[in-house]
Amino acid sequence: MRKIDCEVAVIGGGPAGLAAAVGAYDAGAKDVIVIERDKHLGGILQQCIHNGFGLHVFGEDLTGPEYAQRYIEQAGQRQIKCLRQTMVLELGEGNQILAAKAGEGIIRIDPKAIVLAMGCRERTRGAISLPGARPAGILTAGTAQRFINMEGYLPGKKIVILGSGDIGMIMARRLHLEGAQVKAVVEIMECIGGLNRNLVQCLGDFDIPLYLQHTVTDIRGQKRLESVKVAPLINGKADTAREFVIDCDTLLLSVGLIPENELSKQVGVKLDSNTGGPMVDQYFQTSVPGMFAAGNIVLVFDLVDHVSVCGHKAGESAAMYAQGKIKGWNGQSVSVGCGEGIRCVVPQKLNNIEGEQEVRFYMRAAQVHRQAKLKMTDDRGETICEKRFQIARPPEMLSVQVAGVKTGTGKKYVFELQGEV
Question: Is the pTM of this model over 0.70?
Answer without folding.
Answer: yes
